[in-house]
Design a protein that fits this description.
single chain; 78 residues; 2 domains; 2 strands
Length: 78
Protein backbone atom coordinates (compact mmCIF):
# COMPACT_ATOMS: atom_id res chain seq x y z
CA UNK A 1 0.00 0.00 0.00
CA UNK A 2 1.39 3.35 -1.02
CA UNK A 3 1.89 6.27 1.33
CA UNK A 4 -1.11 8.22 0.02
CA UNK A 5 -3.35 5.17 0.24
CA UNK A 6 -2.14 4.50 3.77
CA UNK A 7 -2.76 8.12 4.81
CA UNK A 8 -6.28 7.98 3.33
CA UNK A 9 -6.95 4.73 5.14
CA UNK A 10 -5.71 6.25 8.43
CA UNK A 11 -7.97 9.32 7.99
CA UNK A 12 -11.02 7.19 7.25
CA UNK A 13 -10.27 4.86 10.15
CA UNK A 14 -9.72 7.80 12.53
CA UNK A 15 -13.08 9.31 11.55
CA UNK A 16 -14.84 5.91 11.71
CA UNK A 17 -13.22 3.27 13.99
CA UNK A 18 -15.33 0.53 12.36
CA UNK A 19 -13.93 1.25 8.89
CA UNK A 20 -12.29 -1.90 7.49
CA UNK A 21 -11.42 -0.74 4.01
CA UNK A 22 -13.27 -0.32 0.76
CA UNK A 23 -13.37 -4.08 0.12
CA UNK A 24 -15.01 -4.87 3.43
CA UNK A 25 -14.68 -7.76 5.84
CA UNK A 26 -15.89 -10.38 3.36
CA UNK A 27 -12.70 -10.16 1.29
CA UNK A 28 -10.42 -11.00 4.19
CA UNK A 29 -10.02 -14.75 4.27
CA UNK A 30 -8.28 -16.25 7.25
CA UNK A 31 -8.48 -19.97 6.65
CA UNK A 32 -5.95 -22.14 8.39
CA UNK A 33 -5.07 -25.44 6.87
CA UNK A 34 -5.82 -28.31 9.20
CA UNK A 35 -2.58 -29.43 10.68
CA UNK A 36 -1.92 -33.14 10.64
CA UNK A 37 -1.16 -34.67 14.01
CA UNK A 38 2.52 -35.49 14.17
CA UNK A 39 4.65 -37.53 16.50
CA UNK A 40 8.36 -37.42 17.12
CA UNK A 41 9.86 -40.80 16.25
CA UNK A 42 13.46 -42.03 16.19
CA UNK A 43 14.59 -43.66 12.95
CA UNK A 44 15.77 -47.24 13.51
CA UNK A 45 18.58 -46.83 10.95
CA UNK A 46 20.15 -43.40 11.54
CA UNK A 47 18.78 -42.83 15.08
CA UNK A 48 17.64 -39.30 14.22
CA UNK A 49 14.44 -37.80 15.53
CA UNK A 50 11.82 -37.20 12.86
CA UNK A 51 8.41 -35.54 13.00
CA UNK A 52 6.05 -37.92 11.23
CA UNK A 53 2.31 -37.83 10.60
CA UNK A 54 0.61 -40.11 13.08
CA UNK A 55 -1.42 -41.91 10.44
CA UNK A 56 1.70 -42.99 8.49
CA UNK A 57 3.50 -44.65 11.41
CA UNK A 58 3.95 -48.42 11.49
CA UNK A 59 2.33 -50.45 14.27
CA UNK A 60 5.73 -51.03 15.89
CA UNK A 61 7.36 -47.61 16.17
CA UNK A 62 10.79 -49.15 16.83
CA UNK A 63 10.87 -50.34 13.18
CA UNK A 64 10.31 -46.87 11.71
CA UNK A 65 12.71 -45.92 8.87
CA UNK A 66 12.81 -42.28 7.77
CA UNK A 67 12.44 -41.23 4.13
CA UNK A 68 16.10 -40.31 3.79
CA UNK A 69 17.23 -43.75 4.92
CA UNK A 70 14.66 -45.33 2.60
CA UNK A 71 16.07 -43.34 -0.34
CA UNK A 72 19.66 -44.22 0.61
CA UNK A 73 18.88 -47.91 0.71
CA UNK A 74 17.09 -47.82 -2.63
CA UNK A 75 13.57 -47.78 -1.21
CA UNK A 76 13.66 -51.38 0.05
CA UNK A 77 13.15 -50.52 3.74
CA UNK A 78 9.62 -49.76 4.88
Amino acid sequence: MGRKDWERFQRLRDSNPDYVGYRGLDTVVTVQAPSAATETVVCSVCNRKRNVASDSLPEDISTFVCLRCQEDSGGDAT
